[in-house]
Each structure stands twice: as structure tokens, then as C-alpha cells.
Amino acid sequence: MGKVVMYNVVSVDGFVADTRDQPGPLFDWYVNGDLPLDESGQLTVSQASHDYIRPFWDAVGASIFGRHVFDMTGGWGGKPPGEVDHAVIVTHRPAPEGWDPEAPFHFVHGIETAMATAQELAGDRIVVVAAGEVGGQLLAAGMVDEVRMDVAPVVMGSGKRYFGSVDTQYVLEDPDVVIQGSRVLHLCYRVRR
Fold first, then answer.
1. A Pfam family matched by this chain, by name (predicted)?
2. Virtual CA dihedral for 35, 155, 25, 5, nearest 10 degrees?
3. What's the pLDDT tens digit per position in 69-105?
């Protein structure tokens, strides 16, 4: 089994979106560089960011998201974000009516089922968990090995927290990756066991 990584862009004060679920300027660094990050060419980042993120994205076999994010994005048009092979959606509801059953999305109930499904799909590749409520639940359940943050130089003031509603203290190891991109700081921490 591959490792499980909680990942997202985050503000300096710990938010992944504002109170209206909008990222605001958090994603500005995705379009301020010269190197294309994905096949669309719409995401262009600095050399430092590209060299850090592209190999990470290439190593991901499955991602886990909550249904709220899935609905907000319109299911990413049927293609998991970051060019990932599979997306597992934690939900109490079935796939949306008219959803393409061939799309690489798996709708499951509960974080344990989501993790088991994602690990089976990913094999020895990385499972990425979107930070926020579902990510916080998986961290609290002891299922996260690593926390990766792309810290944008933004203070949101309030909004959706990176760790969701986690109300217990967790200690992370010292960062083993600290990379400065253009308008972003990439950090990686292992979860202390």
C-alpha cells in the first residue's frame, strides 16, 4: 500500500476557502509561472513549484474528497483533478442522476470505506485526501501518514479550515520539505505516530 497524504492549498491562517466556499486568491500561484503544470496548459507555475508538484501528482493513484466539494465543482467535468486516475467521494447519496457510470469516480459511505476503496484503486501509489472536513476525519482516525500544504501568502480571517473541525491536538514531525515557489511555500510534514 502507498502512503496517505492530506493535501491542499491553505492560507497563512489555516483556511482552504472563505465562508462562501471560494478560494479567493489562494490559487493565484497556479497561474503566475512559465511552466505548464497539467495537460490543459491553464495551470502555469514557477520552476520550483513544478519540480515539487508534478512528480507528486504523478505518484498519486487515487484521491478522496467529500461530496460537498464534488458538488461545488460539478464533479470536475467527470475527470478527477490533478490528472489522478480515480476519485473516491465520501457521501450518503448516490452518484448524481445522469452521471456517467464509466467516469473514474466511486461514491462510498464513510471514511473507512473510502480509504479501503482508495487504497485498493491506488495499489502501491499515493492516496491523496483533500484537506477539510473529510481530511480532518481521516487524520483523527489515524489514517493519514503525511500532511502537505501549499501555503499561499493570504490571510482569510475566517472560512473553511484546513483540518476541518478537528478538536484534538496532533503533533507532526519537523517539515522534511520546505520549498519556496512564486507566491507559495510548499511544506511537507510526516504525522508523528
1. RibD_C
2. 50
3. 999 999 999 999 988 999 999 999 999 999 999 999 9
CATH at residue 38 = 3.40.430.10
Cβ neighbours around 176 below 10 Å, total: 10
Yes or no: say if 119 and 127 are a contact pair by the CB < 8 Å rule: yes
Number of domains the chain contains: 1
Task: Tally the residues of the chain.
Answer: 193
DSSP-derived 3-state class of residue 132: coil
Per-residue pLDDT of 9-54, as tens digits, reads 999 999 999 999 999 999 999 999 999 998 888 999 999 999 999 9
Residue-wise over 90-123: b if at least 16 C-beta within 10 A, else e? bbeeebeeeeeeebebbbbeebeebbebbbebbe
Q: Are 138 and 64 in contact (CB under 8 A)?
A: yes
Cβ-count burial of 34 within 10 angstroms (0-12 exposed, 13-18 middle, 19+ buried)?
A: exposed
Identify the residue whose cell numbers are 464513510.
Answer: 110
Kindly state the DSSP code that residue 114 receives in the 8-state scheme: H
31 bridge partner residues: 44
Question: What residue has cell string 500544504?
Answer: 149
Cell numbers representing residue 3 in the block: 502512503
